[in-house]
Amino acid sequence: MEYILQQPVVASIGAEKYKCTIEWHHGKFITDEPEFAGGKDAGPDPYTLLLSSLGACTITTLRMYIDRKGWDIPQIAIALNMYFKLEGEKKITVIDRDLNFLSPVTDEQRDRLVQIAKVCPVSKILEGEIQVRAFAYTETTVEDKHTYTNGEVTVQWRPELCKHAARCATQLPQVFNPAAKPWVNMEGATSKEISDQVGRCPTGALSMAEKKQ
Ligand code: SF4
Protein backbone atom coordinates (compact mmCIF):
# COMPACT_ATOMS: atom_id res chain seq x y z
CA MET A 1 0.00 0.00 0.00
CA GLU A 2 1.52 3.31 -1.00
CA TYR A 3 -0.07 6.72 -0.63
CA ILE A 4 -0.61 8.66 -3.84
CA LEU A 5 0.64 11.94 -2.38
CA GLN A 6 4.25 12.24 -1.24
CA GLN A 7 3.03 14.45 1.60
CA PRO A 8 -0.45 14.45 3.12
CA VAL A 9 -2.78 17.39 2.67
CA VAL A 10 -3.06 19.03 6.08
CA ALA A 11 -6.12 21.07 7.07
CA SER A 12 -6.27 23.10 10.28
CA ILE A 13 -8.82 25.40 11.87
CA GLY A 14 -8.72 27.78 14.82
CA ALA A 15 -11.48 29.76 16.50
CA GLU A 16 -12.20 32.04 13.55
CA LYS A 17 -15.42 30.82 11.90
CA TYR A 18 -14.89 28.89 9.56
CA LYS A 19 -11.51 29.66 8.11
CA CYS A 20 -9.50 26.51 7.38
CA THR A 21 -5.93 26.54 6.19
CA ILE A 22 -5.09 23.81 3.74
CA GLU A 23 -1.43 22.99 3.30
CA TRP A 24 -0.32 21.07 0.26
CA HIS A 25 3.23 20.20 -0.74
CA HIS A 26 3.80 23.49 -2.54
CA GLY A 27 1.85 26.10 -0.57
CA LYS A 28 -1.31 26.96 1.33
CA PHE A 29 -4.83 28.19 0.65
CA ILE A 30 -7.90 29.11 2.66
CA THR A 31 -11.34 27.54 2.69
CA ASP A 32 -14.42 28.91 4.39
CA GLU A 33 -18.18 28.51 4.60
CA PRO A 34 -20.70 30.84 2.96
CA GLU A 35 -22.24 33.57 5.11
CA PHE A 36 -25.59 31.76 5.44
CA ALA A 37 -23.67 28.91 7.11
CA GLY A 38 -21.89 31.27 9.53
CA GLY A 39 -18.64 31.78 7.60
CA LYS A 40 -17.25 34.78 5.74
CA ASP A 41 -17.12 33.24 2.27
CA ALA A 42 -13.40 34.03 2.20
CA GLY A 43 -12.53 30.87 0.27
CA PRO A 44 -14.14 27.91 -1.44
CA ASP A 45 -16.35 25.73 0.72
CA PRO A 46 -15.77 21.94 0.90
CA TYR A 47 -18.47 21.07 -1.69
CA THR A 48 -16.90 23.56 -4.10
CA LEU A 49 -13.50 21.98 -3.53
CA LEU A 50 -14.90 18.53 -4.22
CA LEU A 51 -16.37 19.69 -7.52
CA SER A 52 -13.20 21.64 -8.33
CA SER A 53 -11.16 18.48 -7.99
CA LEU A 54 -13.42 16.63 -10.40
CA GLY A 55 -13.53 19.59 -12.79
CA ALA A 56 -9.76 20.02 -12.87
CA CYS A 57 -9.18 16.30 -13.30
CA THR A 58 -11.75 16.07 -16.10
CA ILE A 59 -10.41 18.89 -18.24
CA THR A 60 -6.76 18.01 -17.60
CA THR A 61 -7.46 14.45 -18.76
CA LEU A 62 -9.26 15.83 -21.82
CA ARG A 63 -6.38 18.20 -22.59
CA MET A 64 -3.92 15.30 -22.50
CA TYR A 65 -6.14 13.22 -24.79
CA ILE A 66 -6.80 16.09 -27.24
CA ASP A 67 -3.09 16.90 -27.45
CA ARG A 68 -2.24 13.25 -28.04
CA LYS A 69 -4.78 13.14 -30.87
CA GLY A 70 -3.49 16.42 -32.30
CA TRP A 71 -7.02 17.86 -32.43
CA ASP A 72 -7.43 21.62 -32.71
CA ILE A 73 -9.46 22.30 -29.56
CA PRO A 74 -7.64 25.15 -27.82
CA GLN A 75 -10.06 25.85 -24.98
CA ILE A 76 -12.27 23.67 -22.79
CA ALA A 77 -14.52 24.82 -19.97
CA ILE A 78 -16.54 22.77 -17.54
CA ALA A 79 -19.37 23.71 -15.17
CA LEU A 80 -20.17 21.40 -12.28
CA ASN A 81 -22.89 21.18 -9.71
CA MET A 82 -24.51 18.52 -7.59
CA TYR A 83 -27.65 17.64 -5.68
CA PHE A 84 -28.86 14.94 -3.35
CA LYS A 85 -31.86 12.71 -3.86
CA LEU A 86 -33.44 9.92 -1.88
CA GLU A 87 -34.05 6.49 -3.34
CA GLY A 88 -35.97 4.76 -0.60
CA GLU A 89 -33.72 5.09 2.45
CA LYS A 90 -30.62 5.65 0.35
CA LYS A 91 -29.16 9.12 -0.17
CA ILE A 92 -27.74 9.47 -3.66
CA THR A 93 -25.41 12.27 -4.70
CA VAL A 94 -25.78 13.31 -8.33
CA ILE A 95 -22.94 15.32 -9.86
CA ASP A 96 -23.49 16.94 -13.25
CA ARG A 97 -20.67 18.06 -15.49
CA ASP A 98 -21.34 20.33 -18.48
CA LEU A 99 -18.45 20.42 -20.91
CA ASN A 100 -18.07 23.30 -23.33
CA PHE A 101 -15.40 23.06 -26.00
CA LEU A 102 -15.61 26.75 -27.01
CA SER A 103 -14.76 25.81 -30.61
CA PRO A 104 -16.33 23.51 -33.22
CA VAL A 105 -15.96 19.76 -32.61
CA THR A 106 -17.42 16.90 -34.63
CA ASP A 107 -20.13 14.66 -33.14
CA GLU A 108 -17.60 11.85 -33.07
CA GLN A 109 -15.05 13.95 -31.18
CA ARG A 110 -17.67 15.13 -28.69
CA ASP A 111 -18.86 11.57 -27.99
CA ARG A 112 -15.31 10.36 -27.54
CA LEU A 113 -14.43 13.24 -25.22
CA VAL A 114 -17.48 12.57 -23.06
CA GLN A 115 -16.33 8.96 -22.75
CA ILE A 116 -12.83 10.11 -21.77
CA ALA A 117 -14.29 12.56 -19.22
CA LYS A 118 -16.15 9.68 -17.58
CA VAL A 119 -12.94 7.78 -16.90
CA CYS A 120 -10.71 10.57 -15.60
CA PRO A 121 -8.96 9.43 -12.39
CA VAL A 122 -11.13 11.44 -9.98
CA SER A 123 -14.32 10.20 -11.70
CA LYS A 124 -13.11 6.67 -11.17
CA ILE A 125 -12.47 7.36 -7.49
CA LEU A 126 -15.89 8.91 -6.97
CA GLU A 127 -17.68 6.14 -8.83
CA GLY A 128 -15.60 3.35 -7.30
CA GLU A 129 -15.61 1.97 -3.80
CA ILE A 130 -14.25 4.42 -1.27
CA GLN A 131 -13.23 3.86 2.33
CA VAL A 132 -12.87 7.04 4.37
CA ARG A 133 -11.07 6.32 7.61
CA ALA A 134 -10.38 8.51 10.62
CA PHE A 135 -7.69 8.33 13.29
CA ALA A 136 -7.33 10.72 16.20
CA TYR A 137 -4.17 12.09 17.77
CA THR A 138 -3.38 14.63 20.46
CA GLU A 139 -0.40 16.94 20.49
CA THR A 140 1.60 16.30 23.64
CA THR A 141 4.99 17.22 24.90
CA VAL A 142 6.96 14.05 24.87
CA GLU A 143 10.51 13.65 26.00
CA ASP A 144 10.94 9.92 25.41
CA LYS A 145 12.78 9.78 22.11
CA HIS A 146 14.65 7.00 20.29
CA THR A 147 17.15 7.91 17.60
CA TYR A 148 18.40 5.92 14.62
CA THR A 149 21.06 7.07 12.20
CA ASN A 150 22.88 5.94 9.08
CA GLY A 151 25.59 8.55 9.63
CA GLU A 152 23.99 10.89 7.14
CA VAL A 153 20.51 11.45 8.54
CA THR A 154 18.99 10.75 11.95
CA VAL A 155 15.43 9.64 12.57
CA GLN A 156 13.72 10.28 15.88
CA TRP A 157 10.85 8.13 17.08
CA ARG A 158 8.63 9.15 19.97
CA PRO A 159 6.77 6.00 21.07
CA GLU A 160 4.03 7.87 22.97
CA LEU A 161 2.94 9.54 19.76
CA CYS A 162 3.06 6.36 17.70
CA LYS A 163 -0.45 5.06 17.08
CA HIS A 164 0.89 1.97 15.35
CA ALA A 165 -1.14 2.66 12.25
CA ALA A 166 1.79 0.88 10.55
CA ARG A 167 1.83 3.24 7.62
CA CYS A 168 5.62 3.40 7.79
CA ALA A 169 5.83 -0.41 8.01
CA THR A 170 3.59 -0.97 5.01
CA GLN A 171 5.14 1.74 2.87
CA LEU A 172 8.84 1.23 3.66
CA PRO A 173 9.04 -2.23 5.31
CA GLN A 174 12.74 -2.61 4.57
CA VAL A 175 13.34 0.20 7.09
CA PHE A 176 10.38 0.08 9.49
CA ASN A 177 9.70 -3.40 10.80
CA PRO A 178 7.89 -3.58 14.17
CA ALA A 179 8.83 -7.27 14.50
CA ALA A 180 12.58 -6.55 14.40
CA LYS A 181 14.93 -5.19 17.03
CA PRO A 182 15.76 -2.38 16.58
CA TRP A 183 12.59 -1.81 14.61
CA VAL A 184 14.19 0.89 12.41
CA ASN A 185 16.89 -0.30 10.00
CA MET A 186 18.59 2.79 8.65
CA GLU A 187 20.50 0.74 6.06
CA GLY A 188 17.28 -0.47 4.40
CA ALA A 189 16.78 2.50 2.06
CA THR A 190 18.37 5.72 0.93
CA SER A 191 18.40 8.77 3.19
CA LYS A 192 15.91 10.47 0.85
CA GLU A 193 13.48 7.53 0.92
CA ILE A 194 13.68 7.42 4.70
CA SER A 195 13.18 11.14 5.06
CA ASP A 196 10.19 11.11 2.64
CA GLN A 197 8.58 8.30 4.63
CA VAL A 198 9.21 10.06 7.95
CA GLY A 199 7.36 13.07 6.49
CA ARG A 200 4.29 10.86 5.96
CA CYS A 201 3.95 9.74 9.61
CA PRO A 202 0.51 11.14 10.48
CA THR A 203 1.13 11.62 14.20
CA GLY A 204 4.58 13.19 14.30
CA ALA A 205 5.94 10.09 16.05
CA LEU A 206 8.67 10.02 13.41
CA SER A 207 10.74 13.11 12.72
CA MET A 208 14.12 13.97 11.31
CA ALA A 209 16.69 15.30 13.78
CA GLU A 210 18.19 18.66 12.94
CA LYS A 211 21.71 18.29 11.54
CA LYS A 212 24.37 19.59 13.91
CA GLN A 213 26.42 22.41 12.29
S1 SF4 B 1 3.63 5.87 10.61
FE1 SF4 B 1 4.08 6.95 12.52
S2 SF4 B 1 2.35 6.48 13.86
FE2 SF4 B 1 2.30 5.01 12.18
S3 SF4 B 1 3.45 3.22 12.96
FE3 SF4 B 1 4.88 4.51 11.82
S4 SF4 B 1 5.78 5.79 13.43
FE4 SF4 B 1 3.92 4.95 14.31
Automatic annotation (TrEMBL):
Gene3D superfamilies per the UniProt record, alphabetical: 3.30.300.20
| Chain segments annotated as coiled-coil in the UniProt record | none
Tell me which InterPro entries the record gives.
Divergent_4Fe-4S_mono-cluster, KH_dom-like_a/b, OsmC/Ohr_fam, OsmC/Ohrsf
One Pfam family recorded for the sequence: Fer4_19
Question: What's the domain of life for this entry?
Answer: Bacteria
Outline the extent of the Divergent 4Fe-4S mono-cluster domain. 148-211
Q: What is this protein called?
A: Divergent 4Fe-4S mono-cluster domain-containing protein
The organism named in the record is: Mucilaginibacter xinganensis
